[in-house]
Amino acid sequence: MFKSRTFKIVLVVAVVLILAVGAYAFAASNTVPSTYAGDGQGTISGYEIANVNYTYDLNNTYITSIAFVTKDKVSHDLAQAAVAQIQLASGGDWFSCSSSNQTSWTCDTTTGADNSGVAVTSATMLRVVAHQ
Questions:
Q1: In a 10 Å sphere around its CB, with 0-12 CB exposed, 13-18 middle and 19+ buried, how is residue 66 labelled?
Q2: Nearest to 111 by CA among 91, 93, 132, 99
Q3: How far apart are CA 56 and CA 78, in angstroms?
Q4: Model confidence, pTM
Q5: 76 in helix, strand or coil?
Q6: Where are the domains of the chain?
Q7: Quick check: helix, strand or coil at residue 15?
Q8: DSSP structure string for 84-119
Q9: Tell me, what's the pLDDT at 28?
Q10: pLDDT value at position 101?
Q11: pLDDT value at position 48?
Q12: Which residues of the chain carry a pLDDT beneath 70?
Protein backbone atom coordinates (compact mmCIF):
# COMPACT_ATOMS: atom_id res chain seq x y z
CA MET A 1 0.00 0.00 0.00
CA PHE A 2 2.85 2.34 0.79
CA LYS A 3 4.42 1.74 -2.62
CA SER A 4 1.15 2.44 -4.39
CA ARG A 5 0.76 5.76 -2.60
CA THR A 6 4.37 6.75 -3.36
CA PHE A 7 3.84 5.82 -6.99
CA LYS A 8 0.78 8.08 -7.16
CA ILE A 9 2.69 10.99 -5.64
CA VAL A 10 5.59 10.50 -8.04
CA LEU A 11 3.12 10.29 -10.93
CA VAL A 12 1.38 13.54 -9.88
CA VAL A 13 4.73 15.35 -9.50
CA ALA A 14 5.83 14.07 -12.92
CA VAL A 15 2.60 15.30 -14.56
CA VAL A 16 2.98 18.73 -12.89
CA LEU A 17 6.59 18.97 -14.10
CA ILE A 18 5.60 18.01 -17.65
CA LEU A 19 2.88 20.68 -17.66
CA ALA A 20 5.27 23.27 -16.23
CA VAL A 21 7.91 22.50 -18.87
CA GLY A 22 5.23 22.68 -21.58
CA ALA A 23 4.03 26.07 -20.34
CA TYR A 24 7.61 27.37 -20.19
CA ALA A 25 8.32 26.15 -23.69
CA PHE A 26 5.18 27.90 -24.95
CA ALA A 27 6.10 31.16 -23.21
CA ALA A 28 9.68 30.95 -24.40
CA SER A 29 8.54 30.74 -28.02
CA ASN A 30 7.12 34.30 -28.09
CA THR A 31 8.79 36.63 -30.55
CA VAL A 32 8.98 40.40 -30.37
CA PRO A 33 9.67 42.49 -33.46
CA SER A 34 12.75 44.72 -33.57
CA THR A 35 12.19 48.33 -32.55
CA TYR A 36 14.25 51.50 -32.37
CA ALA A 37 15.13 53.55 -29.33
CA GLY A 38 17.73 56.17 -28.73
CA ASP A 39 18.82 59.37 -27.19
CA GLY A 40 20.16 62.45 -28.87
CA GLN A 41 20.04 66.18 -29.03
CA GLY A 42 19.36 68.86 -31.58
CA THR A 43 19.14 72.62 -31.69
CA ILE A 44 15.77 74.28 -31.20
CA SER A 45 16.11 77.66 -32.80
CA GLY A 46 12.52 78.81 -32.57
CA TYR A 47 10.51 81.02 -34.89
CA GLU A 48 10.33 84.71 -35.43
CA ILE A 49 6.68 85.82 -35.51
CA ALA A 50 6.23 88.69 -37.94
CA ASN A 51 3.56 90.71 -39.75
CA VAL A 52 1.08 90.34 -36.88
CA ASN A 53 -2.35 91.64 -37.88
CA TYR A 54 -5.32 91.88 -35.50
CA THR A 55 -8.91 91.87 -36.80
CA TYR A 56 -11.62 93.44 -34.64
CA ASP A 57 -15.42 93.41 -34.56
CA LEU A 58 -17.40 96.43 -35.83
CA ASN A 59 -17.16 98.24 -32.46
CA ASN A 60 -13.44 97.47 -31.94
CA THR A 61 -14.45 95.76 -28.70
CA TYR A 62 -13.38 92.20 -29.54
CA ILE A 63 -10.43 90.64 -31.32
CA THR A 64 -11.98 88.22 -33.80
CA SER A 65 -8.81 86.87 -35.44
CA ILE A 66 -5.07 87.27 -35.59
CA ALA A 67 -2.82 86.64 -38.59
CA PHE A 68 0.98 86.32 -38.65
CA VAL A 69 3.85 84.66 -40.51
CA THR A 70 6.52 82.32 -39.16
CA LYS A 71 10.13 83.09 -40.03
CA ASP A 72 13.48 81.50 -39.25
CA LYS A 73 14.97 83.27 -36.25
CA VAL A 74 18.46 83.44 -37.78
CA SER A 75 17.97 83.98 -41.52
CA HIS A 76 14.61 85.80 -41.18
CA ASP A 77 13.33 83.82 -44.18
CA LEU A 78 9.84 82.35 -44.10
CA ALA A 79 9.89 79.05 -42.20
CA GLN A 80 7.22 76.36 -42.24
CA ALA A 81 5.57 75.10 -39.09
CA ALA A 82 3.20 72.15 -38.88
CA VAL A 83 1.04 73.50 -36.05
CA ALA A 84 0.50 76.92 -34.48
CA GLN A 85 -1.63 78.09 -31.57
CA ILE A 86 -2.02 81.41 -29.77
CA GLN A 87 -2.96 82.61 -26.31
CA LEU A 88 -3.98 86.20 -25.54
CA ALA A 89 -3.91 86.19 -21.73
CA SER A 90 -1.84 84.30 -19.20
CA GLY A 91 -3.86 81.22 -18.25
CA GLY A 92 -6.42 82.07 -20.94
CA ASP A 93 -7.85 79.95 -23.74
CA TRP A 94 -5.65 78.60 -26.53
CA PHE A 95 -6.80 79.16 -30.10
CA SER A 96 -5.82 76.93 -33.02
CA CYS A 97 -4.45 78.52 -36.15
CA SER A 98 -4.75 77.40 -39.77
CA SER A 99 -2.51 77.87 -42.76
CA SER A 100 -2.57 76.92 -46.41
CA ASN A 101 1.21 77.14 -46.85
CA GLN A 102 2.44 76.58 -43.27
CA THR A 103 4.06 80.03 -43.12
CA SER A 104 1.05 82.43 -43.13
CA TRP A 105 -1.26 81.69 -40.21
CA THR A 106 -4.76 82.85 -39.23
CA CYS A 107 -6.17 82.22 -35.77
CA ASP A 108 -9.92 82.48 -35.18
CA THR A 109 -10.67 83.77 -31.67
CA THR A 110 -14.47 83.74 -31.97
CA THR A 111 -14.93 80.46 -30.11
CA GLY A 112 -16.59 80.27 -26.74
CA ALA A 113 -19.96 80.94 -25.21
CA ASP A 114 -21.00 83.93 -27.34
CA ASN A 115 -18.58 83.55 -30.31
CA SER A 116 -17.82 87.27 -30.16
CA GLY A 117 -14.04 86.96 -29.80
CA VAL A 118 -11.62 87.99 -27.10
CA ALA A 119 -12.34 91.30 -25.41
CA VAL A 120 -9.66 93.85 -26.22
CA THR A 121 -9.47 94.78 -22.54
CA SER A 122 -8.67 91.18 -21.52
CA ALA A 123 -5.91 90.62 -24.10
CA THR A 124 -2.67 91.19 -22.19
CA MET A 125 -0.17 89.36 -24.42
CA LEU A 126 0.25 87.41 -27.62
CA ARG A 127 1.83 84.02 -27.05
CA VAL A 128 2.49 81.89 -30.13
CA VAL A 129 3.44 78.23 -29.90
CA ALA A 130 4.50 76.70 -33.21
CA HIS A 131 6.34 73.51 -34.09
CA GLN A 132 7.32 71.46 -37.11
A1: buried
A2: 93
A3: 26
A4: 0.67
A5: coil
A6: 47-131
A7: helix
A8: EEEESSTT--EEEEE-SSSSEEEEE---SSS---EE
A9: 57
A10: 97
A11: 95
A12: 1-3, 21-30, 112-114
